[in-house]
Specification:
With 624 residues, this protein is an alpha/beta fold. It has 21 helices and 26 strands. A hairpin with a 5-residue loop joins strand 5 and strand 6.
């Protein structure tokens, strides 16, 4: 959840590090810091509470020279967010500095041991234990820093991505990872074998690196890399055995990371959805033969054909898309689907066997609980399939097969286009499986494919219809609570709408299946309670939700509805109404969620919230 940047080369490190921190700020943002070996050979550390801009202000009169450095933006797990607990941390002698993502679980035991041996700590973080331990190993074993890093990491329980500077060796940057991602960018000059132009970049994801190079190495668990100024690098495992890394070419460009004229990444990402899902579908639908081409299923047919059930593990928004996926896959492919919170699944003793297929859904591909759920499923011999956005992230690398949603980088903390990309992918998955299992008749299958191809255009029309939301959203800034209701495929949309509102406006919101109101929540309804109802018009549930709305209306609740174009019944009962184009029930969530994203955005804006970086949240939750 925190962000790491590193640089070693011939250029000034500070501007590269600060720019990288700004790009990474979406991961965590309660404090930031930078460490450099400056021209005078001093190892300096500058830190500030707050955003990266606060750090920039605090160094305005400091020496920020130097061509090697590490930097960090923090989302606190241990120790309150302040400048002392911010990274980088010094070792006791100030010869080493270190940044860290992850959690050192045995830090208390290690700290007690180090304190017994006379080491004094400046702050409360688990990270400081790590840098002190490295120095302690160096002193007690009389070894170089790289060896000391190996020795220290062997004593550590937990997850880490670290970068270390050593004042006595300004020509090397040391980094390591276990359970927390770390990417090494290979500078363009390194190829030319001209030591004068060589450089390395380091990032906890690709965003701080992409501007400089597209050639990267994804460090693997328990690997330690030494990056030298002369362009050479060496990667070993914890037992000092040399590893041969694979070079990857990044498939994203800088434009995708910029706001492109929108005031916030979230709004940009909401508006990107029609094109994002076009990309998601590209090459996976054969329009001529009305077929679905999903190599992840085709190449692993035997696992899917013998599967007796599918279990989907995910967190947050991805869990909501899993619920919709369950409805669709069960309906299309006639296979039972269970949906689990990854955080619960990993600590239960689930009954699993080798015929189960487990699907892990994750935008970031780095969510710690989802990764742990995958490990558990693999221990039981299940076939594990990943649905992720970030290419090369940990989940795709730890699953047997899978499908990328290909919606491009999602920077806003509140997930939007990843949700609709996940839905499309799960629909494609359900259709591909139905085809293999022959569970749908051909006419219906072709209709489903045809209707799916119309969705990007209908999303565009939906966006047009959200124009009035900005104005009426202002009326709801005073509210302390919201209720969201939906039925069938639209029930998880209600959950997702409520989550969006909670996370960016800090208004309490709950999503319910509409018929559950009578069983308790209806007691909450009065003239102060806004109720958002998703009441799209197809199938038998429409009439039922009309009755549910009447129950709320008669208790003077305020109705904001999302209805199908041409609707009259719900519209006439609504205080505010947003129309969306008609589509089949199973595809309605793809459109219905858009007004809810827009509504939460404008309520949060009217309340003056920071929508891209809401308080207490981080984009990828790489700790439990
Ligand atoms: C909500 C949101 C989170 C994530 C959750 C899982 O807008 O973004 O609820 O959906 O943290 O993250 P991923 O999908 O990266 O595993």
């Amino acid at each position: 959840m925190c962000g790491i940047v590193g640089y070693i080369g011939t250029k000034d490190a500070y501007p590269i590090l600060i720019k990288g921190l700004h790009r990474l700020e979406y991961r965590g943002y309660d404090s930031a810091g930078v460490s450099l070996i400056n021209q005078g050979g001093d190892l300096v550390v500058y830190k500030a509470k707050g955003k990266v801009s606060a750090l920039e202000q605090s160094v305005s009169d400091k020496d920020i020279s130097g061509t090697i450095g590490i930097a960090h933006t923090r989302w606190a797990t241990h120790g309150e967010p302040n400048a002392t607990n911010a990274h980088p941390h010094y070792s006791q002698s100030h010869a080493l500095s270190l940044v860290h993502n992850g959690i050192i679980e045995n830090y208390k035991t290690l700290r007690v041991e180090l304190e017994k041996n006379g080491i004094q700590f400046a702050g409360e973080t688990d990270t400081e234990v790590l840098v002190q331990l490295i120095e302690y190993m160096q002193v007690t074993h009389q070894c170089d820093t790289v060896t000391a890093v190996h020795l220290a990491l062997k004593n550590v329980v937990g997850a880490y991505a670290i970068a270390v500077l050593d004042k006595r060796n300004p020509n090397q940057l040391i980094c390591a990872r276990k359970g927390s991602p770390l990417i090494i960018g290979i500078g363009k000059g390194n190829d030319k074998a001209k030591p004068g132009e060589s450089e390395f970049f380091l990032g906890s994801d690709a965003t701080p690196i992409i501007e400089f190079t597209d050639k990267v190495i994804y460090l693997q668990d328990e690997e330690i890399a030494v990056l030298n100024r002369n362009g050479k690098h060496a990667i070993t495992n914890l037992d000092s055995i040399k590893q041969t890394p694979q070079m990857h070419v990044l498939q994203m460009n800088l434009d995708e990371l910029e706001k492109g004229g929108y005031p916030h990444f979230m709004l940009k990402e909401i508006y990107e959805q029609p094109n994002a899902i076009r990309t998601c579908m590209r090459g996976r639908i054969d329009p001529t033969n009305k077929d679905i081409i999903l190599s992840g299923i085709r190449d692993n047919k035997e696992h899917f054909m013998r599967a007796r059930r599918i279990i989907i593990c995910a967190c947050g928004t991805s869990w909501h898309s899993a619920l919709i996926g369950k409805y669709f896959i069960e309906e299309a492919a006639h296979i039972p689907v269970e949906v689990e919170y990854a955080s619960e699944f990993r600590y239960r003793n689930p009954v699993l066997d080798t015929s189960d297929v487990v699907i892990a859904i994750s935008q970031s591909g780095e969510t710690a609980d989802t990764l742990a759920a995958i490990q558990l499923a693999k221990q039981h011999g299940c076939f594990v399939y990943g649905v992720c956005n970030v290419i090369g992230s940990s989940i795709p690398r730890n699953t047997d097969s899978g499908t990328y949603i290909h919606v491009g980088p999602e920077i806003g903390v509140a997930s939007t286009k990843a949700f609709t990309g996940q839905l499309i992918t799960l629909i494609l998955f359900g259709l591909a499986l139905a085809k293999e299992k022959n569970t749908l008749d051909e006419v219906l299958f072709h209709q489903l494919v045809d209707d799916l191809m119309l969705i990007p255009e209908k999303m565009q029309q939906t966006l047009e219809k959200t124009k009035g939301i900005e104005q009426f959203a202002k009326a709801f800034t005073y509210c302390k609570n919201f209720i969201y209701l939906g039925r069938g495929y639209n029930y998880p949309v209600a959950l997702e709408g409520a989550l969006k509102l909670k996370e960016i406006s800090y208004i309490h919101a709950e999503g319910y299946p509409a018929a559950e109101m009578k069983h308790g929540p209806i007691a909450l309804i009065d003239e102060e309670m806004p109720v958002v109802v998703i009441a799209t018009k197809r199938g038998m549930l429409y009439d039922k939700i009309v009755s549910n709305i009447q129950e709320i209306k008669s208790r003077r609740g305020k109705i904001i509805s999302v209805v199908t174009e041409g609707d009259t019944a719900v519209k006439s009962m609504s205080d505010y109404c947003i129309e969306i184009p008609d589509t089949r029930d199973s595809y309605a969530p793809l459109l219905a969620v858009i007004p809810l994203q827009v509504l939460s955005y404008y309520i949060a804006i009217a309340k003056g919230r920071n929508v891209d970086q809401p308080r207490n949240l981080a984009k990828s939750v790489t700790v439990e």
